[in-house]
Specification:
7 helices, 2 domains, Purple Acid Phosphatase, chain A, domain 2, single chain, 18% strand
Length: 218
């Protein structure tokens, strides 16, 4: 009886450890594709129907292989969105993972009709900005660091504003929005979403952020 009880306790500990490992290293990084309808303000209603793909926190590294995010690339190639925007944390642990991540991320970017832009995340900056940005831009993802770009779509002009990472970067909201006209339609990209009260006064009708990995915040 005592031996049987010890076996069950040991089995329970193993199961608990496996569940904890999955909760820490698997579930938060599992690629998901979701469709969300965003209401466009009346003054920018000409943009209604624009399809924007937002990709964030791919975290290619020791626990996520580049092949794990290939289904996302295939989905975007099938959807053919108007824009593809990236929210940062492309890799983790080491900049050497850019070699495998960049080609797959580039496929996602190539699916866009009007181009692809992104921002840096904390994991990207901890792996040295200068070793992360060039491979991304070579793959067709233009990185915005406290800057903005006006994209001419077939539904009108749309400003994409990119903010530097809020944890390890140097945030400058004034510089980021400086070229956006007061009546311009703008989307703000910022890896962390918990400082939205700082960016909201600048007038973007939508902010896209990652970092929290979906299930970690309710």
């Amino acid at each position: 009886m005592r031996g049987s009880l010890a076996w069950w306790i040991a089995a329970g500990l193993v199961v608990g450890m496996v569940m904890a490992w999955r909760a820490r290293f698997v579930s938060p990084y599992r690629a998901q594709v979701k469709q969300v309808v965003v209401r466009v303000p009346r003054k920018h209603r000409n943009l209604a129907g624009l399809t924007i793909a937002f990709v964030t926190d791919t975290h290619v590294g020791p626990h996520v292989a580049a092949s794990d995010i290939e289904p996302v690339a295939r989905s975007l190639e099938a959807i053919e969105p108007d824009l593809v925007l990236f929210g940062g944390d492309y890799i983790c642990e080491s900049p050497r993972f850019m070699a495998s991540a960049a080609p797959v991320l580039g496929r996602m970017a190539a699916a866009a009709r009007f181009g692809a832009w992104g921002v840096m995340g904390n994991h990207d900056l901890s792996n040295i900005r200068e070793r992360v940005v060039p491979p991304l831009e070579a793959a067709g993802i233009r990185i915005l660091t406290n800057g903005a770009v006006c994209v001419d779509t077939d539904r009108g002009a749309l400003w994409i504003v990119g903010i530097d990472d809020g944890l390890l970067g140097e945030v400058d909201l004034d510089a980021a929005f400086s070229n956006v006209p007061p009546d311009g339609a703008a989307i703000c990209l910022w890896h962390e979403g918990d400082r939205i009260e700082e960016s909201a006064p600048y007038g973007a009708f939508l902010q896209l952020s990652g970092h929290s990995h979906g299930g970690q915040v309710r």
